[in-house]
């Protein structure tokens, strides 16, 4: 059955498929609950472990996010009461070099600066699509525009961001004020 936005829910018959499809969205939710990114990953892992043990009991397999969000909140409260996450020692240690995250971090910062320079409507559309995971129909309903406008805005904005990254743009201009960057019209 279709929901009011016209989006057909995708059932998740198996836990692994669900985690593969929704991991990024769930991780962003966990990152909003705890300040440390490593703690957010631990929080998500514990919540997914609890969810895995209850997977057969979850009735609504077309949208188990509500259940997982509740588990995330519960694990977060347990974390707060218990004084933090604790490492579990293991006898099997992995040897290996730690990867250099600096290039990825620099690209992330450049992209963040490019997105900050976008007009407000474009930033809203990109945020709703890629941070909140909303569909074009959901974004259109939220912003009061057509789904085709959402899709074309996303397409044009992604082209603009990609070109900016390829040109090496993204460093915020020294003279630009935050007001000027956020008050542009789309």
Task: Explain how this protein is built.
The chain has 186 residues and is an all-alpha fold. The protein has eight helices and no strands. The protein has helices at residues 15-33, 37-54, 65-82, 102-116, 120-131, 136-143, 147-166, 178-182. The longest helix has 20 residues, at 147-166. It is globular and about 50 Å long. Mean pLDDT is 77; it is low at 1-10 and 172-186.
Q: How many distinct beta strands?
A: 0
The quaternary structure here is single chain
Number of helices: 8
What shape does the CA trace take? globular
| Overall pLDDT metric | 77
Helical content, roughly?
55-70%
- Relative strand content: under 5%
Task: Give unreliable regions as ranges.
Answer: 1-10, 172-186
Please provide the ordered H/E string of secondary-structure elements: HHHHHHHH
Separation of termini?
36 Å
List the helices and strands and how they pair.
Elements: H1 15-33, H2 37-54, H3 65-82, H4 102-116, H5 120-131, H6 136-143, H7 147-166, H8 178-182
Short description:
The protein is an all-alpha fold and 186 residues long.
Which terms would index this structure?
single chain, 186 residues, mainly alpha, disordered N terminus
